[in-house]
Amino acid sequence: MNDSIYSEFIATSLKSILKPKLPLKITGILLLILLGIIPTRIALALHQSPKPQAILVLRGSRDRLRYTTKFAQTHPNFDIWVSGGYRSSKEFKSIKNIFQKSGIPEQKVNYDLCATDTVTNFTCTVDDFVAEDIQHIYLITSDYHMARSKVIATLVLGSRGIVITPIEVESKGMPSESWLRITRDGIRSIIWLATGRSGASFNPRLKARKEKVNNKNKNFLPIP
């Protein structure tokens, strides 16, 4: 994504934090306390649920999905969350076919239609895990993408007392993501903790994608 988009988002969001009803120092202290609580909540979740209870796969490549179907067959009691927006109803059906052809019961697979990027992969699914009383999940994504995913998951899921066990899918030579991307999505996650906003709406490319989906797929649930 364009760095200027993120810079604009971060600047705008930080301004919203700098103008709260509470004084700035108190807001900062509360945020520090929240970040300090996360490791404690993660440790407690790991103690209460030492083994994963569900699977979350970040939809970005078919290799991840195919790996997930094989992995799920060895964990038949686990529900699966497939997180990622879809450009069309045809694409959505093709993703569902991957799981159906693998013999995984349809009721075991939850398709998240909300997420538009890696941060929202987690902000869009965290409430589902809380509602299902899930404290520990397998996180499946590509090896090059795992570092950024773990940072976001630690902040977003960890703030709700959910721990992850990462599973990397080999990406055949893809370079690891830069620390710039990891850092800025970490900042976005912290801003989500403070404001409830992930920043996805600040990306004009996502806005154009939504309009395309709405225009071409009237009967398909659009990407929020």
Structure description:
The chain has a single domain, classed as HUPs (Rossmann fold, 3-Layer(aba) Sandwich), CATH 3.40.50. It is built from nine helices and five strands, in the order ααβαβαβααβαβαα. It has helices spanning 3-18, 24-48, 62-73, 89-101, 118-123, 126-131, 146-156, 179-195, 204-216, and strands spanning 54-58, 79-83, 109-112, 136-142, 163-169. The protein has a five-stranded parallel β-sheet, sandwiched between helices. β4, α7 and β5 (163-169) form a beta-alpha-beta unit. It starts with a helix and ends in an 8-residue tail after the last helix.
Keywords:
disordered C terminus, 5 strands, alpha/beta, single chain, Rossmann fold, 224 residues, 5-stranded parallel beta sheet
Report how far the terminal alpha carbons are from each other.
Answer: 18 Å
- Under the CATH scheme, which class? Alpha Beta
- Approximately how much beta-strand content do the residues carry? 5-15%
Uncertain stretches: 207-224
Oligomer designation: single chain
Total beta strands? 5
Mean pLDDT: 81
Secondary-structure element order, as H and E? HHEHEHEHHEHEHH
Helical content (DSSP H or I, runs of 4+): 40-55%
Count of spatially separate domains: 1
Shape: globular
Separate helix tally: 9
Q: What is the makeup of the main sheet?
A: 5 strands, parallel
Q: What is the strand and helix layout of this fold?
A:
Layout: H1 3-18, H2 24-48, E1 54-58, H3 62-73, E2 79-83, H4 89-101, E3 109-112, H5 118-123, H6 126-131, E4 136-142, H7 146-156, E5 163-169, H8 179-195, H9 204-216
Parallel strand pairs: 1-2, 1-4, 2-3, 4-5
